[in-house]
């Protein structure tokens, strides 16, 4: 059983904590000692997993550009070497590259130091084996080793600097050449203007080392220089300011396409030539169209908050099948793996957050791979005098959408949230014009007819936090507020469990 200290460092399938001082009220908890003990826990877990002695292991280590990266890199590398591990020190790397290195360089495992899109003062450890990323129970086991103070026997390991990102970029360039099949094979993106926004994360390589060598015009690209303070905007395709910034950059540069990454490049988003986002439902739609090209009738797994219009696009326009599942990128990936093992043809698992994992790429959520596939598709469409907008035209998008996040007010938050969901399910059955979805895998999803808002809502528990997110979409102007007013009849009776301030604000605006 994990103590409160070690439990706070678990974030789903990663380990994350405060690594740099400077934010009031946030004390550093990812200390040097904690990083060393967690690394020892990973060694012991990996030894048990592989059946190899710790001294026979090879482990790669990489990091994103956070201010604490060098300190934690030294902690991890030194701990590994002191116990006899052969270490490949990969330096500044993307998270997807740190999975692929396990396969290309025959590593038993790898460690990526990153906190994804989280604020500059945070950092974490993400682990891979050749089978992919770890699951929640694996993280529990590693933290239990760390908590108990277990350490492998001392040894004399080695440390070798490796620039694996060169191999990773070459793989993406080769993929574009082979797929586009341009007359000028080595410059298939000549005449294509693409703006890259790396948000000062690890993704700046994509402009200079992938696109430019293939002939693309990358002028107007921004925030390519790694800077762990993230001074321009949060590197996060879900962030409104970040997306607004890249959209404006595309329009300003008069580019054909824009792409944006999160800090460690496991997520990506895109922007069309008009400066319109290809994000969330639109991103899922494009990725689905690409994945189903060579997989007719295949199943696409998404998270639970995808729109009704997207389901219709996947099933009616693309001829595929849509499987809504739980939020959390590991959840959708694991469901896709389960479906394929059961004989269901499933080429794609994708979250609306931008985590996209394709079967052709080991079901690895890789933002650079995703945008590379989008660029290839855009190049093919361009040869037919078409654009990505033509691909998206059949997608029905909601008139309005909103997300409200209700903090849970009691310490034992999960049972409280589950009780709210159970009560709402009972309440919904009695409401005129409401229809409870039969394919909900988490929370409760309800469709409402034209007289009651012409849309849907989903209330669920957050994957990790004491929060209940409420997603609402409507096909009517003013429909979201109408749905919220109907829901208020139920939610107002939950004020002892939920902080309803977000609902109050939403109903008082406009």
Plain-language structure description:
- The protein has 3 domains: 4-162, Alpha-D-Glucose-1,6-Bisphosphate, Chain A, domain 3 (3-Layer(aba) Sandwich), CATH 3.40.120.10; 167-392, Alpha-D-Glucose-1,6-Bisphosphate, Chain A, domain 3 (3-Layer(aba) Sandwich), CATH 3.40.120.10; 400-508, TATA-Binding Protein.
- 38% of the residues lie in helices and 19% in strands.
- The chain has helices spanning 4-8, 32-50, 69-82, 95-104, 136-148, 164-180, 205-211, 240-253, 281-292, 308-317, 329-341, 367-383, 388-392, 413-428, 479-491, 501-508; strands spanning 10-11, 14-18, 58-63, 86-92, 109-113, 122-129, 132-133, 158-161, 194-197, 257-261, 268-271, 277-278, 299-302, 321-324, 348-350, 356-358, 364-365, 400-407, 434-436, 444-448, 455-459, 467-474.
- Strands 1, 2, 3, 4, 5, 6, 7 and 8 form an 8-stranded mixed beta sheet that branches. Strands 14-13-15-16-17 form a 5-stranded mixed beta sheet, with helices on both faces. Strands 18-22-21-20-19 form a 5-stranded antiparallel beta sheet, covered by helices on one side.
- The mean pLDDT is 96.
Instruction: Fill in the CATH topology of the largest domain.
Output: Alpha-D-Glucose-1,6-Bisphosphate, Chain A, domain 3
Shape: globular
Q: What is the CA-CA span between the terminal residues?
A: 49 Å
Helix content: 25-40%
Q: What is the H level of CATH, i.e. the homologous superfamily of the largest domain? A: Alpha-D-Glucose-1,6-Bisphosphate, subunit A, domain 3
What's the mean pLDDT score?
A: 96
Total count of helical runs of at least 4 residues: 16
List the uncertain runs.
none
In the CATH hierarchy, the architecture of the largest domain is 3-Layer(aba) Sandwich
Helix/strand-derived category reads alpha/beta
Structural Rg: 23 Å
| Number of β-strand runs | 22
| Main CATH class of the largest domain | Alpha Beta
- What proportion strand? 15-25%
Our count of domains comes out at 3
Task: Characterize the largest beta sheet: strand count, sense, and whether it forms a barrel.
Answer: 8 strands, mixed
């Amino acid at each position: 059983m994990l103590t409160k200290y070690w439990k706070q460092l678990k974030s789903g399938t990663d380990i994350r904590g405060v690594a740099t001082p400077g934010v009031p009220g946030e004390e550093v908890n990812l200390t040097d000692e904690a990083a060393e003990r967690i690394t020892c826990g990973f060694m012991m877990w990996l030894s048990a997993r592989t059946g190899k002695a710790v001294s026979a292991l090879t482990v790669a280590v990489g990091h994103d550009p956070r201010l604490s990266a060098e300190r934690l890199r030294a902690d991890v590398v030194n701990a590994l070497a002191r116990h006899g591990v052969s270490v490949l020190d990969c330096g500044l790397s993307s998270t997807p590259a740190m999975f692929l290195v396990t396969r290309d360089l025959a590593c038993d495992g790898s460690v990526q130091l990153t906190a994804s899109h989280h604020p500059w003062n945070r950092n974490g450890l993400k682990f891979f084996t050749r089978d992919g990323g770890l699951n929640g129970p694996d993280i529990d086991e590693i933290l239990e080793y760390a908590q108990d103070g277990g350490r492998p026997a001392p040894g004399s390991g080695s440390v070798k600097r490796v620039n694996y990102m060169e191999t990773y970029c070459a793989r993406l360039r080769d993929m574009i050449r082979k797929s586009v099949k341009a007359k000028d094979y080595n410059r298939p993106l000549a005449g294509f203007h693409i703006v890259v926004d790396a948000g000062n994360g690890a993704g700046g390589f994509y402009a200079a080392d992938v696109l430019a060598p293939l002939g693309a015009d990358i002028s107007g690209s921004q925030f390519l220089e790694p800077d762990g303070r993230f001074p321009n905007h949060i590197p996060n395709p879900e962030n409104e300011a970040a997306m607004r910034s890249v959209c404006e950059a595309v329009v300003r540069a008069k580019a054909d396409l824009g792409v944006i990454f999160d800090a460690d490049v496991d997520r990506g988003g895109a922007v069309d030539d008009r400066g319109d986002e290809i994000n969330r439902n639109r991103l899922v739609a494009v990725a689905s169209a690409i994945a189903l090209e060579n997989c007719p009738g295949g199943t696409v797994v998404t998270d639970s908050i995808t729109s009704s219009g997207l389901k219709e696009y996947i099933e009616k326009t693309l001829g595929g099948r849509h499987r809504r599942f739980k939020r959390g990128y590991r959840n959708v990936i694991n469901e896709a793996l389960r479906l394929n093992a059961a004989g269901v043809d499933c080429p794609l698992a994708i979250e609306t957050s931008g985590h996209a994992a394709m079967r052709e790429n080991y079901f690895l959520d890789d933002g650079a791979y995703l945008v590379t596939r989008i660029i290839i598709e855009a190049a093919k469409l361009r040869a037919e005098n078409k654009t990505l907008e033509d691909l998206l035209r059949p997608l029905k998008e909601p008139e309005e959408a909103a997300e409200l996040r209700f903090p849970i007010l009691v310490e034992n938050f999960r049972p409280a949230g589950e009780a709210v969901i159970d009560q709402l399910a009972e309440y919904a059955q009695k409401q005129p014009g409401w229809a409870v979805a039969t394919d909900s895998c988490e929370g409760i999803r309800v469709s409402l007819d034209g007289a009651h808002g012409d849309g849907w809502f989903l209330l669920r528990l957050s994957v990790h936090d004491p929060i209940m997110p409420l997603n609402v979409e409507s096909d009517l102007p003013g429909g979201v507020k109408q749905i919220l007013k109907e829901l208020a009849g139920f939610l107002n009776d939950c004020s002892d469990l939920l902080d309803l301030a977000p609902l109050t604000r939403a109903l008082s605006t406009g």
